[in-house]
């Protein structure tokens, strides 16, 4: 599932490629009707003539600012969604569900293998993703102490995946951040000392920046707007490294599941004895 670095990569690509362009035609293809039934919006006749004034990211949402009347076009990629920018002569992309034709002959194509993604209009960015917590890059040490202190989750891994606490972190980067901060994923959020919370926040920001630097992590379906995979999967520290030696201590990385979410950690660098208060 695309997380903050992957959505950031797409947003930055779109800023460069489509800002200032005008949408001239919109149509659904393949199983695109599922998008209509999911959102209750048919975009076919409401976007023609709209100018794309800007692109930004909110958590894991892509936002196209269409200017007038507070109109925003929102893409939520969910598990396998892709936003591709193609020349009009480019061959059809598999699983394409929505096409936005631009005034320069190019197309924005929304493709989604699993069909969980959404594309919809919103009048207010603040209404997008109600209940979302702050962006990790906007959180300071004092705030992370409060945020984690109020979490009711049983484990710190679950707390990091709770989008109402901090938004944009998914399974991959949660594992990476906990490893970097040397915190056991089973540890209760309330048991973390102020120093551990600050260390974790620094680790979260560090792993997200690395993911952005390498244009995202492609484990399965993520692609950028040109259809190219990211490269951060070649730089991961623990995620997907079951049985391989820890880069710090050479202990074999262990695999477990927390609430059915794949979890990877080093039993030496992130010992279970952290579960007791200290």
Please, could you describe this protein's structure?
The chain has helices at 4-18, 33-39, 141-149, 156-161, 171-181, 194-213, and strands at 23-28, 54-58, 61-65, 72-76, 81-87, 96-102, 106-112, 118-122, 254-258, 261-265. By secondary structure, it is an alpha+beta fold. The chain folds into two domains: 4-127, MutM-like, N-terminal (N-terminal domain of MutM-like DNA repair proteins), CATH 3.20.190.10; 136-275, Helicase, Ruva Protein, domain 3, CATH 1.10.8. The strands form three sheets. The chain has a four-stranded antiparallel sheet with strand order 1-6-7-5, covered by helices on one side. A hairpin with a 2-residue loop joins strand 9 (254-258) and strand 10 (261-265). Helix 5 crosses helix 6. It is elongated, with a radius of gyration of 20 Å.
Element layout with pairings:
Layout (H helix, E strand, L loop, with lengths): L3 H15 L4 E6 L4 H7 L14 E5 L2 E5 L6 E5 L4 E7 L8 E7 L3 E7 L5 E5 L18 H9 L6 H6 L9 H11 L12 H20 L40 E5 L2 E5 L13
Antiparallel strand pairs: 1-6, 2-3, 3-4, 4-8, 5-7, 6-7, 9-10
Helix pairs in contact: 1-6, 3-6, 5-6
Given helix and strand content, the structural type is alpha+beta
Rg, Å, rounded: 20 Å
Total domain count: 2
For the biggest β-sheet, the strand order reads 1-6-7-5
The CATH topology of the largest domain is given as: Helicase, Ruva Protein, domain 3
How can the largest sheet be summarized? 4 strands, antiparallel
For the termini, the CA-CA separation is 36 Å
Low-confidence stretches: none
Number of beta strands: 10
Silhouette: elongated
Query: Assembly type of the shown chains?
Result: single chain
């Amino acid at each position: 599932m695309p997380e903050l670095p992957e959505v950031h990569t797409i947003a930055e690509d779109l800023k460069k490629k489509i800002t200032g362009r005008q949408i001239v035609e919109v149509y659904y293809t393949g199983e695109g009707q599922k998008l209509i039934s999911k959102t209750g919006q048919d975009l076919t006749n409401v976007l023609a003539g709209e100018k794309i004034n800007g692109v930004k990211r909110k958590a894991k949402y892509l936002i196209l600012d269409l200017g007038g009347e507070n109109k925003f076009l929102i893409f939520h990629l969910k598990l396998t969604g892709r936003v591709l920018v193609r020349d009009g002569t480019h061959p059809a992309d598999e699983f394409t569900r929505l096409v936005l034709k631009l005034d320069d002959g190019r197309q924005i194509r929304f493709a989604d293998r699993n069909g969980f993604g959404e594309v919809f209009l919103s009048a207010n960015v603040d209404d997008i993703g109600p209940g979302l917590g702050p962006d990790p890059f906007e959180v300071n040490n004092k705030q992370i102490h409060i945020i984690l202190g109020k979490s009711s989750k049983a484990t710190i891994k679950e707390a990091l995946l709770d989008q109402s606490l901090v938004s944009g972190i998914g399974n991959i980067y949660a594992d990476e951040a906990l490893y970097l901060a040397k915190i056991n994923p089973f540890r209760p959020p309330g048991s973390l000392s102020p120093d551990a919370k600050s260390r974790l926040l620094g680790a979260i920001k560090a792993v997200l920046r690395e993911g952005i630097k390498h244009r995202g992590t492609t484990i399965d379906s993520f692609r950028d707007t040109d259809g190219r995979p990211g490269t951060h999967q070649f730089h991961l520290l623990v995620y997907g490294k079951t049985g391989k030696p820890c880069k710090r201590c050479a202990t074999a990385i262990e695999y477990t599941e927390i609430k059915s979410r794949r979890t990877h950690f080093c039993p030496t660098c992130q010992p279970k004895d952290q579960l007791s208060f200290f």
